[in-house]
Amino acid sequence: MEKLFITKEKPYACDICGKAFSLRHHLKSHLRTHTKEKPYACDICSKAYSHRNSLEIHLRTHTKEKPYACDICSKAFSHSQNLKRHLQTHTEEKPYSCELCSKAFYEAQVLKRHLRTHTKEKPYVCHICRKAFSHSPDLKRHLRTHTKEKPYSCNICSKAFSVRHQIKDHLLTHTKEKPYACDICGKAFSLSRNLKRHFRTHMK
Start and end of every C2H2-type domain (predicted)? Predict the structure, then answer.
């Protein structure tokens, strides 16, 4: 008797790229990748998304909710993918190795990004000035130099910044914390770059 391979029927096909789906609402959701429609908007900051679950994940940046906890060390995360990545730090398993330099990674996607350091590939291009980048977060940060968007606000003085590390540095001006200390004279600094600058005074 001939063996039958039964596959799930996918009657809903995209007119643009031909990709097929088993459910109509999956096709409807997929079409937004072509139309760029973003019907799900955040009530707090007005940022909009194509899919409801993306909005739900974004809302956790406001609520600080972290529903995904590590069973080993109890560290919590707002996104399941971040927990998955974190768990690999306990196992120390790095199954994805670079064939060019033998460096190993937890995820295939991270290896893919790493390979661009060898190939010099820059697939992310700014549509305004055509400057190209190896990684999408770098392009996202660069675009703010054109849009002047500053999404990171200080909750103490409301000063806003375009890059996350700038808000971290700024907060130290309020806390007066100086975590970077000189090994030679003990003088402490709020920012690592100030410590590096200071260290040169000992090298003269």
Answer: 12-39, 40-67, 68-95, 96-123, 124-151, 152-179, 180-204
Domain containing residue 100: CATH number: 3.30.160.60
**Percent of the chain having pLDDT more than 70?**
96
Q: Would 199 be classed as within a structural domain? A: no
Q: Is residue 159 part of a domain?
A: no
Task: Give the start-end residues of each E strand in 60-115.
Answer: 68-69, 76-77, 96-97, 104-105
This prediction has a pTM of 0.48
- The number of folded domains in the chain is 3
Tell me: pLDDT of 2 over 60: no
How many other C-beta atoms lie within 10 A of the C-beta of residue 106? 19
DSSP 43-64: TTT--EESSHHHHHHHHHHHH-
Same domain, 140 and 104: yes
Nearest CA to 106 among 131, 125, 87, 124? 87
Q: 98 — phi, psi (to 5°)?
A: -80, 130
Domain coverage including residue 84: 42-90
